[in-house]
From TrEMBL:
Pfam families: HTH_1 (PF00126), LysR_substrate (PF03466). GO terms for molecular function: DNA-binding transcription factor activity; transcription cis-regulatory region binding. Keywords: DNA-binding, Transcription, Transcription regulation. This is LysR family transcriptional regulator. InterPro entries: LysR_HTH_N, LysR_subst-bd, WH-like_DNA-bd_sf, WH_DNA-bd_sf. The lineage of its organism: Bacteria, Pseudomonadati, Bacteroidota, Chitinophagia, Chitinophagales. Belongs to the LysR transcriptional regulatory family. Residues 1-58 form the HTH lysR-type domain. PROSITE patterns: HTH_LYSR (PS50931). Signal peptide: none annotated.
Amino acid sequence: MLDFRLKVFHTVAHLLNFTKAAEELSISQPAVTKNIKEMEAQLGIRLFDRKAGKVVLTAAGKTVQGTADKVMELYGQLEFDINVLKNQFGGVLKLGASTTVGQYVLPEILARYHRAFPEVKLSMQNANTEIIEQAILTGEISLGVVEGKKHHPLLSYLPFIQDEIIAIAHKDRKYGNQSHLSLQQLEEIPVVCREKGSGSLEVLEAALAEKNLSLSDLKVEMMLGSTEAIKSFLENYDCIGFVSIAAVAESVSRGEFKIIEIPEMEILRSFYFVHPVGIADGLSASFMHFARHTYNQRL
């Protein structure tokens, strides 16, 4: 049903390599070139150029890429809707999720998906963003949900939900009565944060860089591998921690931790669905559609 030339373009546009696109699509490189030339002829404009031996998108190519991304997503949703009507759901879906979204966002969605489609065997690997991306590239998992920025040209990143990284302190420790901090004060207070390779740390570093600061400007006491570890550390040490608001919402509402505002620095990020470049397989597409719908119902 899907125009194959659009699929070829979409793959080349993300890989920017005709040979790799041919491998991804299981066709010959001349076939890739032929489909691209036919699409350019149909549109009456060049979509790719070569600069210094590298394939680059033209301005028109970038415009077409934006539309192609939307078409691919819509096609995945169409497959999902048709399969629901036909009641043809079964198989194995191997998921991977970065630590925060895997612990605090996806479990409820997984439970609902399992109730709706009991014939689908689900499994989920939980690790930091870097490890999840590698697991997708090696074929260990089919679909990931990660945080932070887009990293790899062989992967497609589709927006899922937004999140915010906030500063917190335990109510019974030294900074539990602190309501806000300036950037100057932030440099003087002990801090605990996530480990290298985590999306949470990457987003924090990016926010600091926008203020001409780096992690080395802070008094980082320790880097830990999960939000729960950070929360336990804060219960027993006088410092503040940077965590996802999704991960501590309940603890804050119970009064166990206090949010410390940093008016000069807002740390926003997105969670992304990630799969190999190209059209997501049917089960992955179904889960993405279901997860978005389920999460929006909660809001």
